[in-house]
Amino acid sequence: MKTVDIKIGEKTAAGIEIPLNNAVLVMAVGNKGFVMCGYLNIDAAEKMGDCACVVKGVKNVDELLAGEVVAMTSGAKNLGIKVGMTGKEALEKMI
Questions:
Q1: Over the stretch 31-90, which tens digit does the pLDDT of each residue have?
Q2: Three-class SS string for the chain?
Q3: What is the Cα–Cα distance from 37 to 64, expressed in whole angstroms?
Q4: Burial state string for 20-58 with b = 16 or more CB within 10 A and e = fewer than 16
Q5: Domain assignment of residue 59, given as a range
Q6: Which of 42, 55, 61, 78 can bridge 87 by disulfide, Cβ–Cβ 3.0-4.6 Å?
Q7: Has this prediction a pTM greater than 0.90?
Q8: What residues contact 87, with CB distance under 8 A and at least 6 apart?
Q9: What is the CATH number of the domain that holds 32?
């Protein structure tokens, strides 16, 4: 597992990369929610009441931040996150 600090302005979020057998699980975690790769389940995040969004087809934190949001929970919508934003733009609203 690899963790990296993600600096956005004066705030910091945690980037996580977990290599698995056939893919890498990638997340960026802020204090209000998280941006996740397509490996994780957006319906489960919604059911748990999490503020989360998905960026698909990524292999590392840099790609997660540069990629486009394709899905989100209602909590993420309430923060102003929209489909088509970059993962970084979404994360900025979560920290």
A1: 999 999 999 999 999 999 999 999 999 999 999 999 999 999 999 999 999 999 999 999
A2: CEEEEEEECCEEEEEEEEECCCCEEEEEECCCCEEEECCCCHHHHHHCCCCEEEECCCCCHHHHHHCEEEEECHHHHHCCCCCCCEHHHHHHHHC
A3: 7
A4: eeeebebbbbbeebbbbbbbeebeebbeeebbbbbbeeb
A5: 2-94
A6: 55
A7: yes
A8: 28, 35, 53, 55, 58, 64, 65, 66, 67, 68, 69
A9: 3.30.1980.10
Residue with tokens 């899905």: 71
Q: Which residue has the tokens 């910091």?
A: 12
